[in-house]
Design goal:
Chain A is mainly β and about 110 residues long. Helix content of chain A is about 0%, strand content about 55%. In chain B, strand 4 and strand 5 form a beta hairpin. Classes of the chains: A mainly beta (about 110), B mainly beta (about 120). At the A-B interface, strand 4, strand 5, strand 9 and strand 10 of A face strand 5 and strand 10 of B.
Chain lengths: ~110, ~120
Amino acid sequence: RKEVEQDPGPFNVPEGATVAFNCTYSNSASQSFFWYRQDCRKEPKLLMSVYSSGNEDGRFTAQLNRASQYISLLIRDSKLSDSATYLCAEADSSYKLIFGSGTRLLVRP
Amino acid sequence: DTGVSQDPRHKITKRGQNVTFRCDPISEHNRLYWYRQTLGQGPEFLTYFQNEAQLEKSRLLSDRFSAERPKGSFSTLEIQRTEQGDSAMYLCASSKDRGRGGEGYTFGSGTRLTVV
């Protein structure tokens, strides 16, 4: 079983839609979690950290569910510019990041 | 300092040749990481340094791969006797200490390796 698992998608949604991604992790001792955005043939860029109490940044909301060992990312009012691959990552005991395979989002007009 | 810098951006090499990539991290970052990313996959951890010490190496890092960070600043990743399966994007990232507190990592633009 992979340490971090994501649905690869693609999620194909119209502009203005709300879309949610989940990511499961296997290491119950993991302390920190992150969502990264990666555009085609570009490097990943930090979108937001995921705190135990949840985290909201504009249209983006991240949640952590330790009991079920998953993190989620909710995007409200999707924009065309949100089209990208979204990578979730956990920091292991040495605080190196372990990434999922990514979820591809396509926002159509 | 404008971020993490990687060189070259692209490298095409013949199978069996050696290649070396360079990464210059953000100056105040003491941790430096190497990842490999193939199409449709997330970045896979290869190795990381804290200052000049290489603290961990992935099983993915075969004996053909070696990484150095001689003075705790820039790092090099060398692949000897390249194989077609080495074709991938090689990403370098850096962080201050463990990158906690929501900082995560900052990635460079990557070196895209094609082995023909």
